Structures are given as C-alpha cells and as structure tokens.
Amino acid sequence: MSSLSLAVRDSATMLRRNLLHARRYPSLTLNLLLTPVMLLLLFVYIFGDTMSMGIGGGGPDRARYIAYIVPGLLLMTIGSTVVGTAISVSNDMTEGIIARFRTMAIHRGSVIVGHVIGSVLQSILSVVVVGTVGVAIGFRSTGATVLDWFAAFGLLVLFALSLTWIAVGMGLISPNAEAASNNAMPLILLPLLSSAFVPLHSMPGWFQPIAQYQPFTPAIETLRGLLLGTEIGNNGWLAIAWAVGLTVLGYFWAKAKFNQDPQR
C-alpha cells in the first residue's frame, strides 16, 4: 500500500473517531451552536425594528434586517463551531492519547487531518441549522442564481477550513481545554466587530478601518452580495485572500507545533 493510501486510510479512521466523539458528547457542539442562534433571535425580535433603521431604507423594517443579519450570522456560526475544535485538540494533546498514537504505525498527520475534516463538516452542518432558522423567521434570498448559491457555499467551506486550521493551532498551544476555549474566543468576537450587525458607515470613524480590514467583513459583504444581490466590489478577492492566507498560516503553524514537542 502506498504512503498516500495509508495517509487517506488513517485520516479516515481519525475522522470517524472524531465524529463518533462528537456524537457521543454533543453538549459542546450544541452550546457553541446556540450562540449564533440566540443572537439571531435576539437581534431580530428584540432589536430588529431599531437596528433596521440604521441600515437605510426608511423606517423600521424587521424583514429587511433579517436579510441583512443572516449572512453575518452564518460566518459567525463557523467561528463559534471551530472553538470546539480547539478544545478537542487540546484535550487530545493533554490526555495522553496523542502519545499513544505516536507509538502506533499510523500516518503522523492523520490525527490533525481527522480533526480538520471533522470540524469542517460540523461547521457546514451548523451553518445549515442556523440558515434553516433564518429561513423559518423570514430570510429570503433575492435574485441569487444557482451559481451564486454554489459560490456562497464554496466561500463558507473555504472559511470553515481556514478558521479550523487556526483553531487547531490554538488547541495545540493550549495547556488545557479552558485555555483553548479562551485562546479561540477571538473567532467569536471578531464577527461582533464587523459589519455583521450594522453597516460600516454607522460605526465611529476611528473604528471603521478596524472593522473593514479584518477577515470577517469582506466575507460577510461577499456573502450578502451573492445571496441578496448587493454590491460586492473588491470584497470577494479580499475574502478569498484572507481565507487562503489563514489556511496557509494555520496549516504551517499547526504542523510545526504538532511536530515540535512529542512529549507534551
């Protein structure tokens, strides 16, 4: 059997292990998933009328705000879900199972690959759940073609992959699960500091560059453009550049850290 076949086989085994672990202990995933769902319901039904006045179009319009907020919440859902990946990786590193895996005849990188693929699958499933809630409360895509939907899905998968690699790196540098959760918290906080809930022009002038040039804002604006027909501009290229850059950074960071200290 070739080395590639061994890597694929072992990675598939580790993926199955992680999915079984997530199925047996769903509380962490559910807790992380509830954050964007609760924010969606809170901002729509409690703040929706007021917040909708800040995005233009005249007076209060809850339906308009639902359309505005859902794309941002989909990206925030990915950030919330991958926090569980950081915690899971940290648990593996601190509970001794990695030391046992290192003594076995398995592909060295399959442990991390299993975590990454499993996290991406969970992120997309979480996005589907939050998107379903959004549709149930009134979100409707306006004028999006089949190609737009495929592009939106590809963008979500790409961002899930990039944030997962960053979360894996955070899990590898964390001494315990609590630290991993704290280290990964920016993945939840950054969407709050983006254009997910209010437009950039409504923010204080000194804060607008911070919100504009972080990873989530270009991705959110691109997703809005694909699903709602708004102007994308250069946000599409910025979103792809951020996603690819974070993927490469996270991959080499996680690889270096995983190979650095086998006796952790």
Secondary structure elements and their pairing?
Blueprint: H1 3-24, H2 27-45, H3 48-52, H4 62-94, H5 97-102, H6 110-136, H7 146-173, H8 177-183, H9 186-192, H10 208-212, H11 216-228, H12 235-260
Q: Please identify the structural class as seen in this structure.
A: mainly alpha
Q: Which regions have little confidence, pLDDT < 50, spanning 5+ residues?
A: none
- How far apart the termini lie comes to 31 Å
How many β strands by DSSP? Answer: 0
**What Rg, in angstroms, do the CA atoms define?**
19 Å
Number of helices: 12
SSE sequence, one letter per element: HHHHHHHHHHHH
Strand content: under 5%
Report on this model:
The chain is built from twelve helices and no strands. With 264 residues, the chain is mostly helical. The two termini are 31 Å apart. The relative contact order is 0.14.
Which features characterize this protein?
264 residues; mainly alpha; single chain; 0% strand; elongated
Put the structure in a nutshell.
This protein is mostly helical.
